[in-house]
């Protein structure tokens, strides 16, 4: 058994290595989660945009490949308020992009996927994973209690000390401290006065605020980042971007190619794909929309930009694909999930056990 400086996360999640493969809606797969689980980490499925039957299918597929701990992940965002003026302005802004990329008829601004609810809770209870994790807060109290009563471990992302405290007071068993470097959507959910903190500043703040294992996330893409997270007081890490260019990831080929070529100096937050800030590799669309802030509420924009993102990826052009990636992008190579995971463990161990 490999030695880690902190065993709390391995004990809580029933894993051998305190490394969570991040749940990534639109990227993570049963194959990816199973490989990580079989290698001793926590494999995760990003289920936020799946139907109830889709969640059951992918959980069953993962189970067929691995009997290790599994994490099912969902969004708990506030339901959007529809605003006709914002919707019209967004569609007008997008029209030239639809024309340029031949993306077809622009859909209405509408809610294509929903926050975690009672129906999905039943599905999770049926799938019975070791872990359920959440982004943008937690489900309502009764649903958290149902999951906990079934013995499911609850994780959620915090971007401030106050969010971490809020999550633990409402039942989270461990907190993911998600720094600004992270790829994809930043998980903030409480009002904030300043900018989003980086992982280096956020992790010790969260460690000093809550009395549970803290998982560092954001910009960690090799063993050095993992060792640093332990030095900051984290009990483990959650890694996303490093797994995106693997054959087990289902992001588009152009996303993988752009990621492997990226330096890490070339990412930015963009609200223009979904209506919420998400870190992407800079492309023409994100750059052109960088100053626009009055988008329809998350996740309404996802429905409108979907054909644009698909058309851009189909044409193998990075122009309007949501190229989610963290600031660790410069460390990403084309490797298998197994190789990525094993080298994370090996590199971290060689630094930590010096
Ligand atoms: C492509 C992509 C999709 C993501 N989707 C989700 C998601 O569905 N749910 C979630 O909780 N976090 C999601 N995240 C954020 C990750 O959980 C994690 O915080 C992040 O990947 C860590 O930073 P890193 O990308 O620098 O490793 C996503 C990240 C990426 C890169």
Offer a quick outline of the entry.
The protein is an alpha/beta fold and 354 residues long. The chain has 13 helices and eleven strands. Helix 2 (30-38) runs parallel beside helix 3 (52-65), helix 7 crosses helix 8 (199-209) and helix 9 (223-231) packs across helix 13.
Name a few traits of the molecule:
binds flavin mononucleotide; 8-stranded parallel beta sheet; 3-stranded antiparallel beta sheet; alpha/beta
Structural summary, described in words:
The protein folds into 2 domains: 239 residues, TIM Barrel (Alpha-Beta Barrel); 104 residues, no CATH class. Helix 7 packs across helix 8 and helix 9 packs across helix 13. The chain is globular. The protein has 354 residues and is an alpha/beta fold. It contains 13 helices and 11 strands. The two termini are 17 Å apart. The model has no long low-confidence stretch (mean pLDDT 97). Helix content is 40%, strand content 13%. The site of flavin mononucleotide has 28 residues, from strand 9.
